[in-house]
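mind reviewing these tokens:
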Amino acid sequence: MTPKKPVRRTAKADPVPVRRKASGPRHAAPAPAKRSAGRTLARLVGPLVLVILTVGVLVVGAFPTRTWLAQRSAAATAENRLAELDAANDAARAEADALRTDSEIERLAREQYGYAKAGEEVYQVLPPARDPVRVPDAWPFGGLGTTLER
């Protein structure tokens, strides 16, 4: 007797569907074109969505942020200007309060207008004289220099 070969058992594969022949003309060429167009469209949709989302984020986030930073800078400048004006107002208010006193009015009248009390004499000191005009000794200024020195 001949020895029997061992039988291997394998998993059964799914049955392959049987293709039937079409009775009419075949339209095999358009089917791959449709698949190709569908794949191209699918490849374009992803980047298109990404671009739209990026533009949306920029419109919602980046552009208002720039406006906000500009407004914050303008507000800081306005606050600094307000502080300067408040300081100037305080100084003007202090000067106005001082001008309401008799001693300040008297001081300003003596300094600016030369006023004096009864019995006082006012002396005004003139500034020193300027140097005389110096004219060169060369011709056409020869006679002019002696005339100016007189």
